């Protein structure tokens, strides 16, 4: 929370009533404090300041400052002690122990991961989920971080000490610590930690590597400090293109791979680099730049992954795509990545003459590349094939008795034709066809419970076949299936989101057209933006969609709904029913609806 500098809103001396309230709140929140200790932290006569600040993410926080040092901070009506307070009263909070190198990661904004927790001989401190707790380093009882437990101690042990352990809010060396006198932690011997260093010494490096997550680290996690930018990453040194080519040829001939002596992380680093180089060399065109990093991974890198293998960045030493691309930029100058809009990174330049890229040969012979189809005037753009969209239905808990004979349980996904076949079979097997009029089906107790409303129980005795089928589909959970060429089917619950086209005013009656949900249909927002920009000769921009992490909004000047529709319908061949906002076209003067 305080990894970056904050903004001070106000700084005032605390009132008498507020002082008494703070003293009562501290006593309630930290019952282990004695009366004397409480009076030292919240004295009756000494000056105590209330500082209201805004953290860099916009959170409103209240600080309580005594003797120029913040002693408590209040976030969402909950009090937390600072490291200055815990250095004098370390017994206030239960503390987890970790290794000293982890402190730098915590100060950078990372959370404490359970693999990095050192378990003393006395065991883990007992905490519940959400409890306030501290973090200390081996051999020193003085805490260096404050946060909340993400799970109880029992859950930590049951999960084998894996996952996120403490959500860190404040650390030694962060901006909140810098708001005080910037003194260092005292050396307080930790009796519980005796013998821990000897027991864990051999595993220290491994624990430190897994101890943190969610912070921008150097591309090579095993390197130290400033040496990270000078020392080349082991993945690029160990990757032998010739050896890899031979391995692919052996695979084609039906030979089995020998057991790889490298660790799983090293193998993933090599696979990541291979897919990266292959994507740059055989997939990415200069006309596509700038290219969203997320699109580069999803569309280009994943398609370069050899069959039988799965590309998983989290299993590599980089953990994140941004760190990997940063390494490729800083250490090897292969690409240049830039943040064109807030929170959205794009590859803006590729060094096509880089020796590593020029000498790279794809593991499999690409043969003659398919000539790019130029549609809509965008030169060099690869042809787009729309997904095959199928409406599916999932068996709900209410309809499970109706599908029980067909051995279709709750959650089974079915095609409409399969649903029709199962219902028809059920009706005939139970002899529910009306003998007088075979267009009707007699309602038995199961059909009554599954398909009828309560008000219809006494009134409806039979249904037409069409009504029976439509009611069944209506009561089921709607799903949809997307099938992209060369990719496995993707099944999602609910109706598919349409591509949304809207027009908004931007002062002085200026209009802008906004398009979102392009990613749902496998469309690259950057490619669509460039195509529109060239088609209508107007400026365009990419903005993140509020409330979504991986969606991007294409914005172009003017009311361009008609041109957007032509692009989506004619070039990308998206069916009209999956486009929303077609009625926002510019109306020609003199025409009335």
TrEMBL record:
Residues 199-265 are annotated as: Disordered. Residues 499-572 form the SUI1 domain. InterPro entries: EIF2D, eIF2D_N, eIF2D_SUI1, Pre-PUA, PUA-like_sf, PUA_eIF2d-like, SUI1, SUI1_dom_sf. Pfam families: Pre-PUA, PUA_elF2D, SUI1, SWIB_eIF2D, WHD_eIF2D. Residues 388-475 form the DM2 domain. Residues 241-252 have a biased composition (Basic and acidic residues). PROSITE patterns: PUA, SUI1, SWIB_MDM2. Keywords: Cytoplasm, Initiation factor, Protein biosynthesis. Residues 199-219 have a biased composition (Acidic residues). One of its GO terms (molecular function) is translation initiation factor activity. One of its GO terms (cellular component) is cytoplasm. It comes from the Eukaryota. One of its GO terms (biological process) is formation of translation preinitiation complex. The keyword Cytoplasm applies. NCBIfam families: unchar_dom_2. Belongs to the eIF2D family. This is Ligatin. It comes from Coregonus suidteri.
